[in-house]
Amino acid sequence: MADSSAQPIAKYRSDYQAPDYTIENVSLEFDLDATATKVVAVSTVVRQAKEISDLVLDGEKLELLSISVNQQAHQAYKLSDGQLIISDLPERFELKIETQLNPKENKAFEGLYQSGEAFCTQCEAEGFRRITYFLDRPDVLATYTTKIIADKAQYPFLLSNGNKVDQGDLANGKHWVSWQDPFPKPSYLFALVAGDFDLLEDSFVTQSGRTIALELFVDKGNLDRTEHAMASLKEAMRWDEQRFGLEYDLDIYMIVAVDFFNMGAMENKGLNVFNSKYVLANKQSATDNDFLGIEAVIGHEYFHNWTGNRITCRDWFQLSLKEGLTVFRDQEFSSDLGSRAVNRIKNVRLLRSHQFAEDAGPMAHPIRPDKVIEMNNFYTLTVYEKGAEVIRMLHTLLGEQGFQAGMKTYVDRHDGQAVTCDDFVNAMQDASGKDLSLFKRWYSQSGTPVLKVQTHYDQNKQQFSLTIAQHTPATAEQEDKQALHIPVSIELLASDGSSLALQVNEESVSSVLELTETEQTWLFEGIGEQPTLVMLQEFSAPVKLEMDYSSEQLLLIINNASNTFARWDGMQKLVSIWMKQAVAQVQAGNNLQLEEAIVNTFKLLSEDSAIDKGLLAELLTISSENEIADGFADVDIDAIAQARDFFIRSLALALPEQFVALEQACAKADKQSLAHEDINLRSLRAACLQYVAYSQPELVAAAYFDSPTMTNKLAAMSAANNADIEQRAAMFRDYEQNWQHDGLVMDKWFALEASYAKEGSLARVQALAEHPSFSMENPNRVRSLVGSFANNNARHFHAKDGSGYRYLGEILRVLNTQNPQVASRLITPLIQTVKLDAERKALIVEQLQVLAELEDLSKDLFEKVTNGLQQLQA
Ligand code: TRP
Ligand code: ZN
């Protein structure tokens, strides 16, 4: 933003005002054309404010053709940047607005655009204003009727929200369809799709006996990749009835998969639009993780029908009202259907590797932000994942019954309304009788709390005392922090690994301690021996822990904790103690050595035939560089990478027979189904292949060439990538030859190529941008290639000559104009860098300054670049 007068303006949560007008219903008519689509919007507008006032409508990138009020051409209006201001209005009137759009030129994929040959829309958060002038805010709930007109041969399917009410043919080869959605909704839930697709049809009978038509639309030729998405949808519908008592409302549920989409998927009422990545899968083209991702995202969008659509957000600051809650629901769905422990571990890994970094970075914000420049920048790990953790803490404090009672109160009170996070917590409080006034602070305070733990055992009194102090470090946007209401779930282990009863005054007490003050002490009685304390069972709160553990204590926890997550977490602590020491050794120029105790732990685990295979896979997987970095106040990229490489290689060479035996046993036992036992066997095999690659690389090549499924092939490729084995080239060439016609499948290949840390990385990534399967216009491709390089190839992205930063800077300048949303997500690894050394920070500042000077810098990048510079230069 060179011109300072044009600087984007921030909006504040505290400035909320109810709208002066509302729109009761709107009838839309689209005459679709690639470069000149006409939209006629006829709305019933009603004044809410007591005083006479202008009607201020949002609108962007629109050509205004006409305005009329009560069928009369209306002249009293002004067009200013992003707004249409209409004056001289009665209290209630019919407003007709005609606009024209150019979907073909729309490469930002917000509003109406073309994905391949089809038309589709994306309106959340503020995209509807690119379709027509409107009160484009979530607290204006209207009923919609939509008529779509288009060429019949090119666009046989014309879809919108609700029920199809009429259709017909027109002259000149066109046809039309009209849709009516009986449920009042905010504009961000509007959707339209037009195109030619393959259609998978099915149906679902609800608990009350209604039959719902299910329709899944995909690009022609992809029908053999739709079965899993449809099965997941039916699972989700059943699960929401059984666990939450929530039933679907319309008579039809449609999902359309498109290749060009900025995010995962979108919950538009009755007509979800999905990134094809979260729909298309069969065993040849998709991994188990892809299948699980589809199940989770299909579930997520379906669950929004109640938590988001029937009950929506009053304003966008309340986004976590629907997202935190819906992520919690989709996590529970995945956990009920599959492995609860593995799901919990994966969610916590994501939180620690990325959400904690967001909290420590320049874009830190509470799960309910206070200040926003570009709303699209707040679809974050904090709002989604930490938001889900906050809901999970409520669930822990209230129990399943109390929580479900709260949900029922919430739905009964607020169905059909646009509400706030406070409304949600109040419903939970009123239904359960639990005081949640302090708990609400989780919504307004950002940052990751740190718990300091001190214990004392008194042999004579047989008492164990536990003192927990909490403190939250200042974040970029919020200096002062206060105490939070934190559920801390604990266990005390005896030296034989058994669990000790928690007693106070001779009565047993809950294992969930409620920390509400800066420091609190608990005294447990009747403890016959010095116990080992297991903290944060099931990761009961999104916090960091400062506590000293001996290796012996950690081994006791790894082998005996009742909670599976706690066992895995014990392993993380053990490895991280070693990593810290190793990084210091690397920095001091000393040789590294892997401790006998660690090798032994891995040996015993690899020989343990009783342990759950899914858990074992997680235990054997070494934390990523990003996760390790979270444990350091100053991050030394190269030392972390070296220490981690050394750890994996030494372990592989210390226990070659063990890893090979386990890998082979998994391969043999795998019946190649999607059942969870088989998924677990394949993840364990994948974990082993990472080690096997160092001792018997030919087995990795065999796993690639002999496996019929993508899961094994990709596991082998990843192992080959990390260990850089000779066979790697042949495997990657084979994959490229088999799949270069299919961009979605090539994404996995691009991602691995970009994270291949061998020297010359950047040049390879730059060359791959010219690959026939690559396209800068497709967000999935960009994320796979550029995103993987910046996020998962730290050594080269953070190269000391600044080449990685310069490369990302160039990409961002292209995307800034073409697709600001994608640019803004891609910039993260360039701004979450405050823990790096001074030389690297200086190189980053240079790149951020170049961006800051751009004439046409998007609001999205403006907000992040400004905050990034501020933190780095502070
Ligand atoms: N509401 C969507 C979800 O949680 C997220 C989403 C899809 C989105 N597309 C978007 C958010 C575009 C912002 C912009 O599933
Ligand atoms: Zn969502």
TrEMBL record:
Documented EC number(s): 3.4.11.2
InterPro entries registered for this protein in UniProt: Aminopeptidase_N-like_N, Aminopeptidase_N-like_N_sf, PepN_Ig-like_sf, Peptidase_M1, Peptidase_M1_dom, Peptidase_M1_pepN, Peptidase_M1_pepN_C, Peptidase_M1_pepN_C_sf
Taxonomic superkingdom: Bacteria
Positions of the Peptidase M1 membrane alanine aminopeptidase domain: 229-442
Keyword Ubl conjugation tagged: no
Coiled-coil spans in chain: none
Gene3D superfamilies given in the database record: 2.60.40.1840, 3.30.2010.30, Neutral Protease Domain 2, Peptidase M1, alanyl aminopeptidase, C-terminal domain, tricorn interacting facor f3 domain
UniProt KW keywords: Aminopeptidase, Hydrolase, Metal-binding, Metalloprotease, Protease, Zinc
Keyword Cell membrane in annotation: no
Record domain Peptidase M1 alanyl aminopeptidase Ig-like fold: where: 447-547
Reactions mediated catalytically: Release of an N-terminal amino acid, Xaa-|-Yaa- from a peptide, amide or arylamide. Xaa is preferably Ala, but may be most amino acids including Pro (slow action). When a terminal hydrophobic residue is followed by a prolyl residue, the two may be released as an intact Xaa-Pro dipeptide
Peptidase M1 alanyl aminopeptidase C-terminal domain mapped to chain residues: 552-869
GO terms of molecular function: alanyl aminopeptidase activity
Required cofactor(s): Zn(2+)
Major enzyme class: hydrolase
CDD domains tied to this protein: M1_APN (cd09600)
Domain Aminopeptidase N-like N-terminal: residue ranges: 27-189
Similarity-based family: Belongs to the peptidase M1 family.
The name this protein goes by in its record: Aminopeptidase N
Source organism: Agarivorans aestuarii
